[in-house]
Amino acid sequence: MKKTYDLNVLKRTSIITPDQLREEFPMTEKATRTVLDSRQEIKAILDGKDQRLLIITGPCSIISHRQAVRYGELLAELQEKVKPTIKLVMRVYFEKPRTNVGFKGLISDPHIDKQTFDIDEGLRKARKILMDLNEMGVACGTEILSQTAAERLSGLIAWACIGARTTESQNHREWASAFSMPVGFKNGTDGNLGTAINALLAASTPQVFIGNDPFGVTSRVFSSGNKYCHIVLRGGKRPNYDPVSISEACEMLANHPSLLQSVIVDCSHKNSGKDYRKQGEVFNHVLIQRIGHTNGIHIKPNKAICGMMLESNIEAGKQAFVYGETRKEDLNPFISITDACIGWDETEEIILTAHRQLK
Known about the structure:
TIM Barrel, 10 helices, Aldolase_TIM, DAHP1/KDSA, 3-deoxy-7-phosphoheptulonate synthase activity, amino-acid biosynthesis
């Protein structure tokens, strides 16, 4: 009898299970406290009980331990300066969605060579990075693309995001319903807010879905629903960080009182026209809407705006990189190889200025 399955599969190899990875990199008391305290702080901000501004900032993609820890050190120092007005979360992205093909992140290809795809090593690197950042007291946020990574790393994540390409995914909505951290859903790539609202409704509801247990065995998962799912505006066919667009999002949320009436704005992607140099301008426009004044001109403050996102690296811009041709050892670990980012100096200036305005 002819075979009817795996006709395009070249081979299968096992990967490290969730419990094995946690045994190799066990939680510490300090890391546990960072995760739990940060989640509670973020929840309080989303609830409106904590009036601080949530800012998720960090590299478009993590490409090395050295890069992640150095950015974390800088962020930890800055957090101490702005603690009364701002909660900082580091953007620690290990998985990258691709429109067609390309570098899919450190977990998929930790050697960045388009040949080895040593996922075990990628998962180990990712967990080590998250452990070290949490040990430093740095709250970590990431985009969830795969259930595999989520099952192995989510215990170290304070805030998670579902990207524009996957907001419509039933699987991602189900996973989010079971996550222990707050989860932001971005509007669709076309700017459709209804897609994100439907995702929030699904993820906040109890679900039953197929997942894995700590040993990697397929099982049924029963979730209670995640009440801390919220919307992230990232632009679409046009930017949506302006007062009219944010009001529209608030009006749609108001039709569903069970949902969090909170909005986070992504200052990158389509809101900046994919021009990293415009992120600061977007940030300041949203900040004015949040606080309601600038140079003596007053508008009605919008308290629904509870946070913003920045794509920021240690050095600005994007370096020359051809996946499969550029060697990892030839890369500058402090400059992006995916989306261009603002540099640390600008990042610090933006956040310190916001701190002064919020005071």
